[in-house]
Automatic annotation (TrEMBL), chain A:
A Pfam family annotated for this UniProt entry: YCII
Organism: Murinocardiopsis flavida
Name of the molecule in the record: YCII-related domain-containing protein
UniProt superkingdom: Bacteria
InterPro entries (UniProt xref): Dimeric_a/b-barrel, YCII
Stretches assigned to the YCII-related domain: 20-107
Source taxonomy: Bacteria, Bacillati, Actinomycetota, Actinomycetes, Streptosporangiales
Family classification: Belongs to the YciI family.
Automatic annotation (TrEMBL), chain B:
Chain segments annotated as transmembrane: none
Keywords: Sigma factor, Transcription, Transcription regulation
Record-stated family: Belongs to the sigma-70 factor family. ECF subfamily.
Sequence ranges assigned to domain RNA polymerase sigma factor 70 region 4 type in this UniProt record: 98-148
Keyword Ubl conjugation carried by entry: no
Name of protein: RNA polymerase ECF family sigma subunit
Gene Ontology MF terms: DNA binding; sigma factor activity
Record's keyword annotation contains Membrane: no
Annotated ranges, domain DUF6596: 161-251
GO biological process: DNA-templated transcription initiation
Domain RNA polymerase sigma-70 region: 6-69
Source lineage: Bacteria, Bacillati, Actinomycetota, Actinomycetes, Streptosporangiales
C-alpha cells in the first residue's frame, strides 16, 4: 500500500475543460457536484482506500522567523498569479496506477451544465517509512 | 445500563475523592478507571448503590496507583478503602469541579477538554473524536490542563461566567463523532443549574434548549444549511421550546439581565413565530439593543443590522451596517442579503460570492455559493 495526496488548486493548475466558476452554476448543478464528491469519498471509505479529505480557505499568509526576540515576518495574501491549494484528499492504494485512476474519476465531478469539469488534480506520492527488509 | 446516568455521577464521585485528600489529577484518573470498570461490570450485575460502588472502586484505584508497593503499607491502607458512610456534600463538590475545570489559567480548548472529562465523564477517546484530533493529542491536552490547575485550592470560589463561557463553547463548537456534544452541553448546563442559583446559568440553558429545538430543521437531507426563514417550523422540537421559554421567563423575572438571557430572549421570539413572516422583529431589535449595551460586540451589531433590515426595511439595515468594519466575519453575507431584499440583485450576487470566499466553514461556503448561483442563473 502507498499513500498519495490528491491536490486541488484554486489557482496555479492548468485551466479545466469546463471552466465556469461555481457561483455561475445553477443551484441544482452545485448540489449534483456536492453529491458526486460525497459519494466518491464514501465509496473509497467502503473500499478501505480513503484516509483524509480537507478543504482550505482561499487566503493564506507566508510566515518566517526574523531573528531572536523579534516577531515573525508575514507576507501575503498574494495576488492572482500565485499557486493556491484549495484542498486535498489522501488515499492509501495498492499502486500508482490506482491513484491515477481515482484522480481521474474525481476530476470527472459534474460542473456547469451537469458536464464533467475535467479539472486538473495534482497527484503526489508520500515519502513513506523505509521497509523492514531492504535487501 | 444508562451511560449518561452513569456519567452524571462523575462529578460527585470525583468531588468525594478530592475531599478525602486525593490530589485532583490522580483522583480524576481513578474515577475514569472506575467508569470504565462500571461499563464492563454493570450490565451483568448492576449495584444497588451505583454512586457508592463508584466511590469504592475509584478510591481503591487511587490507592493502588499512589501508595508505595509494600505489603505493610497495603495492610495499613486497607482500612482506608472502606467508603466513608453517610451522604457527601455532592452539590458543592460538583460546583467546585466546574470552577476548577474552567479555571481562568486554562486556555479555552484545555478548559473544554477538562470539563468534558472530569465533569462530563467522557473518555479521552470520545473527546478526541468529537474535536477531530488524535487521541494522543487530546490526552496531552488533558494532562497539561490537570497540571495547570493542580495548585488551585479545591474550595476556592470561582466565577460562574468563566464556566458559562466553557459550556457555551462546547455547545456552539461541538463537531461530530459518537458523542452529541450539543446534548452533552445541555446536560452539563442543567447539572450546573441544580448546583448554583444564577439567572445567567438559566439564561444559557434556555438559549441552548431553544437552539437545539431547531436542529432537525437546520439541515436539508443532503447536508446543506437551511436558513431560519426557510426552516420547516413543524420540525422544531416544541417540548424543548416550551422548557426553554419557561426557564427564560423565570430568569427574566428576577431582573438581573445578562447576555445569555438576552440572546435566549431573541431565540424565544423566533420560536414564538408560527411563520417567518410573523416574527416580531421590532421586539428583536429592542433585545439586540439590550445585548449591545451588555456586550458591545461587533457580532451583536451585525446581527442587529439584520433585525433592523427586517423591522424597518433593507435600506435601514444597510444604514446600520455602514459603521461596521469590512473585515468583520459574515458582514458581506449580511450585506448581500439586505441588497437582495432591496432589489439590487447584481450587487447581492457579487457580495454572496465574496462572502463565500471568506466563509469560515464548508456548510456556510456552500450555502453562500448557492445563493450567488441562484441570483446569477435566475431566468
Amino acid at each position: 500500500m502507498a499513500k498519495y495526496l490528491l491536490l486541488k488548486h484554486y489557482r496555479g493548475a492548468p485551466a479545466p475543460v469546463n471552466d465556469v466558476p461555481m457561483d455561475q452554476w445553477t443551484p441544482d448543478e452545485i448540489s449534483a457536484h456536492m453529491q458526486y464528491m460525497r459519494d466518491f469519498a464514501t465509496r473509497l471509505e467502503g473500499t478501505g482506500e480513503f484516509v483524509d479529505g480537507q478543504a482550505l480557505a482561499p487566503e493564506g499568509t507566508f510566515v518566517r522567523y526574523d531573528g531572536e526576540g523579534r516577531p515573525p515576518v508575514t507576507d501575503g495574501p498574494f495576488a492572482e498569479t500565485k499557486d493556491l491549494i484549495a484542498g486535498w484528499m489522501v488515499l492509501d492504494v495498492d499502486s500508482y496506477e490506482r491513484a491515477i485512476e481515482l484522480a481521474g474519476e474525481l476530476s470527472a465531478a459534474p460542473g456547469a451544465g451537469g458536464k464533467p469539469i475535467h479539472e486538473w488534480l495534482e497527484v503526489r506520492p508520500f515519502l513513506a517509512a523505509p521497509p523492514t527488509i531492504s535487501e | 445500563m444508562d451511560e449518561v446516568l452513569l456519567r452524571s455521577l462523575t462529578p460527585s464521585v470525583l468531588g468525594i475523592l478530592v475531599r478525602r485528600g486525593a490530589d485532583f489529577a490522580a483522583a480524576e484518573d481513578a474515577v475514569q478507571d472506575a467508569l470504565v470498570e462500571a461499563v464492563r461490570a454493570w450490565p451483568a450485575d448492576q449495584p444497588r448503590d451505583p454512586k457508592g460502588w463508584l466511590v469504592t472502586v475509584a478510591w481503591r484505584r487511587f490507592l493502588d496507583a499512589t501508595r508505595a508497593d509494600t505489603a505493610r503499607r497495603r495492610r495499613e491502607d486497607h482500612a482506608d478503602e472502606e467508603p466513608t458512610p453517610g451522604p457527601a456534600p455532592a452539590v458543592d463538590d460538583t460546583l467546585q469541579l466546574y470552577f476548577l475545570c474552567a479555571h481562568p489559567s486554562l486556555t479555552p480548548s484545555s478548559a473544554v477538554a477538562l470539563t468534558l472529562r472530569a465533569v462530563g465523564g467522557l473518555t479521552t477517546r470520545q473527546i478526541a473524536h468529537a474535536y477531530l484530533v488524535p487521541e494522543a493529542t487530546m490526552a496531552q491536552r488533558i494532562s497539561r490542563a490537570k497540571r495547570t490547575v493542580s495548585g488551585v485550592r479545591f474550595d476556592q470560589p470561582g466565577d460562574v461566567a468563566t464556566v458559562l463561557r466553557v459550556l457555551y463553547l462546547v455547545f456552539n463548537e461541538g463537531y461530530s463523532g459518537d458523542v452529541d456534544l450539543a446534548a452533552e452541553a445541555i446536560r452539563l448546563t442543567r447539572q450546573l443549574r441544580s448546583a448554583v442559583d444564577h439567572p445567567e446559568v438559566a439564561g444559557l440553558l434556555a438559549l441552548m434548549l431553544l437552539h437545539h429545538a431547531r436542529r432537525a430543521a437546520r439541515t436539508a437531507a443532503d447536508g446543506s444549511l437551511v436558513p431560519l426563514a426557510e426552516q420547516d417550523r413543524g420540525r422544531w422540537d416544541t417540548v424543548s421550546i416550551a422548557e426553554g421559554v419557561e426557564i427564560l421567563q423565570a430568569a427574566l423575572a428576577r431582573d438581573r439581565l445578562g447576555e445569555f438571557q438576552a440572546q435566549a430572549a431573541i431565540a424565544a421570539l423566533h420560536a414564538d413565530a408560527p411563520t417567518a413572516e410573523e416574527t416580531d422583529w421590532v421586539q428583536i431589535v429592542e433585545w439586540y439593543d439590550e445585548l449591545a449595551r451588555l456586550t458591545d460586540s461587533p457580532v451583536v451589531r451585525l446581527n442587529r443590522a439584520v433585525a433592523v433590515g427586517e423591522a424597518d426595511g433593507p435600506r435601514a439595515g444597510l444604514a446600520a451596517l455602514v459603521a461596521l468594519d469590512d473585515a468583520l466575519p459574515r458582514r458581506a453575507a449580511v450585506a448581500a442579503y439586505l441588497h437582495e431584499r432591496d432589489g439590487d440583485l447584481a450587487t447581492a450576487a457579487r457580495l454572496y460570492a465574496e462572502a463565500a470566499r471568506k466563509a469560515p466553514n464548508l456548510a456556510e461556503r456552500d450555502h453562500l455559493t448557492r445563493q450567488a448561483a441562484r441570483l446569477n442563473t435566475r431566468r
